[in-house]
Design goal:
By secondary structure, chain A is of the alpha/beta class. Helix content of chain A is about 65%, strand content about 5%. In chain A, helix 3 links the parallel strand 4 and strand 5. The radius of gyration of chain A is 29 Å and the shape is elongated. The N and C termini of chain A lie far apart (about 80 Å). Chain B contains 2 helices and 6 strands, in the order E-E-H-E-E-E-H-E. A 6-stranded antiparallel sheet of chain B has the order 1-6-2-3-4-5. In chain B, a hairpin with a 4-residue loop joins strand 3 and strand 4 (about 50-55). The radius of gyration of chain B is 11 Å and the shape is globular. The termini of chain B are close together. Classes of the chains: A alpha/beta, B alpha+beta. The interface of A and B includes residues 93, 222, 287, 292 and 386 of A.
């Protein structure tokens, strides 16, 4: 048998990635496709000697394609035709989860259901008749507990069998005579070969098999804009006519189709699921407090404050240790290399530069750890809930709040997290302001400067940078809403996942996966950066005052003269475009010797504060620029972000210096 | 009596009779099981979004949308 292509799909938060890892084992290869909207995770596994190519699709509720996530998932199933689609169903929430299943079946995909969280089903004294469910749906249903790897072997066998023999029986949703007649009429039009499907990425759909025509017809009657776009105008117009007619009799067609699907699901679930009347759950009791009208927001701020305090306090001793380590290492290496230039390159340039960045590993890992904890426990969604009203006032969608929080870790995943937002303008706005959320790479700069110039008040000063970023983000959101993205945010509709006790394994692996990027960056792009800086600082002559770097810095310095910064500080900013950690690394290389006392001599307190603010605001790092470009699919938006941020940074820094001069 | 879900009291049941929030919004709500004819349980209704239990899951609905979901308290 040739290689099998198996897509994994399911509602958000049903343990998709956990199952994916269980299926692929250790050998997984994680790949991102740059450029297009595609973000799928791939991996390989083996069943009975057959190589299986697994594709993990984003979590979606339906295949209606309202958000980019849904579009990615739907397009994949339509255009890539996977051999088998594994649909992960949360067994504790059968009814809602089966909606997606039914849509997959309407697409005539070869579906296998992985019924996850079977352990919780027992705990909640529910009982699911798996055999009956399998019979009614006409597909294989395999109970699993993905977290513990239970049922995985059975699932693999079911995948193989379905790939070989297809589904057991085809299930059809009955939509009633009138609607079905309309579907037939459109199918007929689609089949008519005179009508060509121009500009159509799904061209083969319209002219293709019965199943595909049936599906497109259904979507057209539901009023799906995407479907409207891909068919000939004549058909789209006729479909609209038919829809209007039907709506006179049956009400909104979208709701009608959903109702018919849920009717079928309801009749199936009634016969397969036994459950006792639900009392108030633990989640409900938690929510009564955490989402309280008056307590909700204060509780949120206390949690945030604790998160930041933990990040800094727990990290402090480790930070000191690493700092000492690199200091000693640098000295030892420099001392044991006879060649003076080489000793300087390795000792000061590489070890000093990279070391000054790696010092912040503990902070960054803790920050990611806490963010993962908030995500996994289910609180992150509640944060969006309590902040929705505030967000709405400033013209942002409630869902934009989660990307903003993630931005404190790193803006790149944060910008990618905006994909769950349905409205394009809401999403663009959320992306534009995200770089103002102070990411962990900027933290080293604050820590360094606050330590030197604001000893004893570091925490407050560092916190003020985060608050400044938030304040500016609010301001920009208001401005952009007023002039660029007029109108109101789109409706806020979001599932609140039940609170779950986070598993340590999950948290640690998420933290490690995100945090290792930082270490990787230190070993690659930052290493390269500090070597270039060292080279520019030591050539052509040797003295830094006559170096290439000095030439560049002195040429640019007049621009920053009103802010009072020296050419060294200016050059470090330039290098920081690569990644803001590099600002610290380059300052280390540029001033040499004792960085603290050198900086103390070169900046006044006000100038130092202005410098911190400038680092917060100016130009997102290269990775963020690339992320904005990729997510907006237009060079216009990254350029816009760069421009407004530079102007804003300069303006704010100037204001700080001016006001500081008066005090 | 015809009312809006934004006015429903917490812990009560609410039967939806009509939703008037635009095509995309109606469709999105429907895919999550919130549609005319459905009875939902209101879990939380403070000053922010309204949280309802529908088909075994909990969904938060922004106040703006909640004011366009009509029906009656049971």
């Amino acid at each position: 048998m040739k290689e099998l292509k198996v897509a994994i799909i399911g509602n958000p938060n049903v343990g998709k990635t956990t199952l994916f890892n269980a299926l692929t084992g250790e050998k997984q290869h994680v790949g991102n496709w740059p450029g297009v909207t595609v973000e799928k995770i791939e991996g390989y596994g083996k069943v009975d000697g057959v190589r299986v190519h697994y594709i993990d699709l984003p979590g979606v509720y339906s295949l209606s394609a309202y958000s980019i996530d849904e579009k990615i998932a739907r397009d994949f199933i339509l255009t890539e035709n996977p051999d088998v689609v594994v649909d992960i169903v949360d067994a504790t929430n059968l009814e809602r989860n089966l909606y997606l299943t039914l849509q997959l079946l309407e697409l005539k995909a070869n579906v296998v259901i992985a019924l996850n969280f079977m352990d919780e089903v027992e705990k909640r004294r529910m009982d699911i008749d798996v055999k009956k469910l399998q019979e009614f749906l006409g597909i294989k249903v395999v109970p699993v507990v993905a977290r513990e790897g239970k049922g995985i072997e059975e699932l693999k066998r079911a995948i193989l069998e379905t790939a070989r023999h297809g589904v057991i029986r085809k299930v059809e949703v009955g939509y009633g005579r009138d609607v079905e007649r309309a579907i037939l009429e459109i199918e007929g039009m689609l089949a008519d070969e005179r009508i060509k499907c121009r500009h159509c990425p799904f061209a083969k759909l319209c002219l293709g098999s019965d199943r595909e025509r049936h599906w497109v017809s259904t979507r057209l009657l539901e009023g799906d804009d995407e479907a409207n776009k891909v068919v000939d105008r004549e058909i789209a117009l006729r479909a609209m006519e038919l829809r209007r007619e039907l709506e006179k009799k049956y009400g909104d067609m979208a709701a009608y189709f959903a109702k018919k699907r849920y009717e079928l699901i309801g009749s199936i679930v009634r016969q397969c699921l036994k459950m006792e009347e639900m009392e108030e759950t633990f989640s409900d009791r938690m929510d009564r407090v955490l989402l309280d009208k008056y307590l909700g927001i204060p509780i949120f701020f206390v949690i945030m404050w604790l998160a930041f305090k933990l990040t800094f306090d727990v990290a402090a001793p480790f930070t000191l240790l690493i700092e000492k380590l690199f200091d000693e290492l640098g000295k030892w290496v420099a001392g044991s290399i006879p060649n003076e230039t080489m000793a300087s390159l390795i000792g000061e340039g590489i070890i000093g530069g990279v070391g000054s960045v790696l010092v912040f590993v503990p902070n960054i890992f803790l920050l990611f750890f806490i963010l993962a904890l908030l995500e996994d426990s289910g609180y992150m969604a509640r944060a969006a809930f309590v902040m929705d009203r505030v967000m709405y006032r400033i013209g942002l969608h409630g869902k934009a709040f989660i990307p903003m929080l993630l931005g404190f870790g790193c803006n790149v995943p944060a910008i990618m997290a905006t994909r769950t937002m349905e409205d394009e303008r809401d999403r663009l706005l959320a992306i534009m302001i995200n770089p103002l959320m102070s990411c962990s790479a900027r933290l080293p700069v604050y820590v360094l400067f606050a330590g030197i110039f604001f000893a004893g008040k570091e925490a407050g000063v560092i916190m003020s940078m985060y608050l400044l970023g938030i304040l500016l983000a609010v301001m920009m959101a208001l401005l952009l809403r007023k002039f660029l993205f007029q109108g109101k945010p789109s409706p806020f509709i979001m599932e609140m996942p039940p609170y779950r006790l986070p598993t340590l394994r999950n948290i640690v692996s998420t933290t490690w996966n995100r945090g290792k990027m930082f270490i990787k960056k230190a070993g690659t792009i930052i290493l390269l950066g500090v070597i270039i800086i060292w080279f520019l600082a030591n050539f052509p002559d040797g003295g830094i005052e006559e170096s290439f770097l000095a030439m560049i810095g002195k040429a640019m310095q007049p621009l920053f003269a009103p802010l009072g910064w020296s050419w060294r500080a200016v050059v470090a900013l330039l290098a920081g475009v690569v990644g803001k950690e590099i600002v610290v690394g380059s300052l280390g290389a540029l001033y040499g010797g004792n960085l603290s006392s050198a900086l103390a001599a070169d900046f006044t307190r006000v100038e130092a504060f202005a410098y911190m603010a400038f680092v917060l605001i100016y130009v997102p790092c290269i990775a963020t620029i690339a992320a904005i470009w990729q997510e907006t699919r237009s060079i216009k938006w990254p350029l816009f972000t760069i421009t407004y941020e530079i102007l804003l940074a300069y303006g704010v820094a100037l204001a700080i210096v001016a006001i500081g001069g008066l005090i | 009596m015809r009312s809006m879900i934004s006015l429903a009291s917490a812990r009560g049941l609410f039967r939806i009779t009509s939703i008037a929030c635009g095509r995309g919004c109606v469709n999105k709500l429907a895919s999550m099981g919130i549609m005319p004819g459905e009875v939902v349980r209101v879990i939380n209704n403070g000053s922010g979004p309204v949280m309802v239990e529908v088909k075994g899951s909990r969904v938060a609905i922004g106040r703006g949308v909640a004011m366009k979901i009509y029906g009656e308290e049971l």
